[in-house]
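QA checklist item 7 of 12: single-chain prediction sanity check.
[x] sequence parsed
[x] length recorded as 391
[x] structure emitted
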Amino acid sequence: MRQAPGPYTFFAATLSLVALFAVSSAPVPLFGLLQAKLSMSSSDLAMTAVSYFGGCIPALLFLSRLPNCLGRKVMVSVALAIGLVSALLLANAGTVIDVLLARFMQGMACGLASGSAMAWVFDAAPSHRRSLAAALSAGSPGMGFLFGALAGAVLNELFGLPLQTIFYAVASLLALALLAVLFGTETVNRNVGATFKALIPAVEVPERLRATYVLAVLAYAGTWGVGGFFQAYSAKIATDALHSTSTLTAAFIFLSFIGTNAFGGFFASRLTALSALRIYMGLFLLAVICMFAGLWVGSVTVFFVFSVIGGVCVGAVCASALRLLTHEAQPGERSGLLAAVYLAAYLGPGIPNLAFGLWVTGVTVSQMSLFYGFWALVFTLAVWGFSRRFN
């Protein structure tokens, strides 16, 4: 009989999830320095986001079912190892290709984490605290983004550490997380014989959960799509719109929207999942409109205040969508189901950044904000409309 996971495994799973997203956010406020060092163009910056999401998608498409075959621990360990190598690659980056490859690897690591580490968190959570598992699964990426981006900026701006030392420090964090995972308890029975079949691309959504899946995808794609603007252009927003070359300014821009996702799940837990989804999706749209209005009129205060509110709403929306989706899911369905959600969610920011990187060049961040504001409007209306099916 398999041993019950216990609090340590819950801690190790959550730590690994936070650490993997921390390594993916640490470079974001430092892109201005990398841009100067490697002579990166605006299109190159957009392609860093595309590379990241390009790594997420194949991991979710081809590897999402492996945690059910090889175990949560094995796949989380693989994700941490990939993230560690990406940090070492960034530490020694000499060309733009090195940066893009490292971002691709970070995307792959986070894609693996979306299916394996999140499922491990759900498996290891106490049975009477499922809302906590949903909040941590949705909020841990935000916690990681918060820690990674802020740590990278502080180490450079306040302590004057060079890029190489910063990324070595990030690699050390992942090594510690990997060590912690090795002592965690596996929560599924391995089925190594099914590994080859599991590699065949498949989006696993049980028929009874398909409507809920579509609603979750609309919520994630709509909110994460706007987040992609901050993923790629935080440093550019700092220099072009706020006239600051500080890495801390770039970090605070990124964190004001992305890092605050971590807090939304705890607000959403006070309401029923469906009510929270509808309410916070509307507040998200309102915050995005006010945020971009602040950018257009040059009001730093308005921009930051509504970026924070918008980021909290993103976390609340995503936690609510996960609660709806996982409420009736069986343990063996969670890994594939979560991967299916994040596969669609990563396309949200990936497609706009690909367009801005390859085709729509030479536009300002203020002009880009018009597109992202329209994006938020369309997906908010779609979520509201589709959620009426659940009345």
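[x] summary fact logged: The first helix runs from residue 6 to 25.
[ ] second reviewer sign-off
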